[in-house]
Amino acid sequence: MKQSGSPVPAPEGKLGVLIVGLNGAVSTTFLAGVLSIGKKLAVPIGSLTQMGTIRIGKRSENNFPLIKDFVPLAELNDFIFGGWDIRNENCYQSALTAGVLKHEHIAPVKEELERIKPMKGVFEQHYVKRLSGEWIKEGGSKYEKMMMIREDIKDFKKKNKLDRLVMIWCASTEIFIPVNGVHHEQDKFEDAIKNNHADISPSMLYAYAAILEGVPFINGAPNLSCDVPALIELAKEKNVPIAGKDFKTGQTLVKTVIAPMLKAKMLGLRGWFSNNILGNRDGEVLDDPDSFKTKEESKLSVLDSILQPDLYPELYSDYYHKVRINYYPPRGDDKEGWDNIDIFGWMNYPMQIKIDFLCKDSILAAPLVLDLILFADLAQRIGMTGVQDWLSFFFKSPIHEADAVPEHDLFIQQMKLKNTLRKIMNIEPVSHIDYDPELVNSQA
Fold first, then answer.
1. Is it the case that residue 439 has pLDDT exceeding 60?
2. Does 328 lie in the same domain as 217?
3. What's the rounded mean pLDDT across residues 166-193?
4. Across the strands, what pairs with 362?
5. Who contacts 263 (Cβ-Cβ below 8 Å, separation ≥6)?
6. Residues 312 and 396 reside in one and the same domain
7. How far, in Å, are 250, 252, 289, 307, 344 from residue 339 at the CA level?
8. Which of 167, 281, 403, 416 is the most buried (most CB within 10 A)?
9. Phi-psi region of 347 (alpha: psi -120 to 50; beta: other; left: phi over 0)
């Protein structure tokens, strides 16, 4: 911490970062970037924690420190990386295979990436039909495999002499599983694991193991994971922060900007058609209807929450919303999101908005991984437990308590995040109402 008089102590020692899906495109792009930043070969573009500022006091005071100088976050050079995957190759090999970064940007951190190798992953093809794994934990029940994950966590912690850990799911999207009876109570959830119930997926096993080991868990995919009621309750009991789900990067990021604009200007919506093409492993996984169903639920949840059709029936009660994702191998990690938006204005006259967002999926996701690791570690150190809804800024489908309504408006999410940081540091939240009461009273 670079600011004196901080009410929150600075982190001490190394931070263990455990990544599920260690050899994937997002993970290797994140790893190569953090290592390059540590060598001052790159700038952390896209990272709120590293490049974002936060206003303190009134605007007239002109006090806008960097977030990393305001809040005591871990240093990037203090990260110790590990994790699991279903492929037995080091992260340098995987980064080359992913094809996101040019060789010239990977080569300077080759030695560091080669030293990062995955532990055997827990995998069942039933949950991700388009993938197969050869580097996986064999035999045993789901409960026994969950215990193997716990042993991996303990061994990694002991080997690297770590006091703090964070686990983040950067693996593929699993099939859609609705919340049901086995997910609601902790004893039923544990029984379901021991009985190899089909509605207990590998991601739930990782989340369960992390929480039992006191490790913050972040879900970067849209599948059901730490957001089941049994695990939300367990996270509170174990004093563990959890967050998710589904990194907000491309098309949905745009939706959380455009939809608030429509509502702010009281413009109506007739329909919103979204089409995506991508050719990376994520695109291949989502080519399976069961995995696409999981992603579709995440993407479709955004508009209703923002537009509030119950409050504005004349504007939003009858719009048509369609999402398509198409696997197109030639595109690789370069994703294209195309949106056609039919709106209407004064006197019901029709208008259209068309957006074509050509982006790089892993380039957008990597800084989110960094920010979430740092914020989850902060939350753990200061005793923030259970669902961290202040991190909804980073997710398409933010997890939330049963009695809470998730917020999807990007700018409200940003205000909530920054005001939470101010509260952590015992600074007055910003309301954007800057006025002098004495001056107002004298003019009244």
1. no
2. no
3. 95
4. none
5. 306, 307, 308, 312, 315, 316
6. no
7. 11, 10, 21, 17, 16
8. 167
9. left
How many Å is the Cα radius of gyration of the chain? Answer: 22
Cβ-count burial of 403 within 10 angstroms (0-12 exposed, 13-18 middle, 19+ buried)?
Answer: exposed
* CA 40 to chain CA centroid, nearest Å: 26
pLDDT tens, position by position, 259-268: 999 999 999 9
pLDDT (0 to 100) of residue 436: 56
What amino acid occupies position 235?
A: A
Contact 223, 282 (CB under 8 A): no
Asked whether residue 282 falls in the same domain as residue 383, the answer is no
Structural domain boundaries enclosing 335: 251-360
8 A C-beta contact, residue 215 and residue 200: no
The whole-angstrom separation of Cα 50 and Cα 170 is 21
Residue 279 sits in a domain of what CATH number?
3.30.360.10
- Is 87 among the domain residues? yes
The total domain count for the chain is 2
What CATH number is attached to the domain comprising 145? 3.40.50.720
Same domain? 368 vs 353:
no
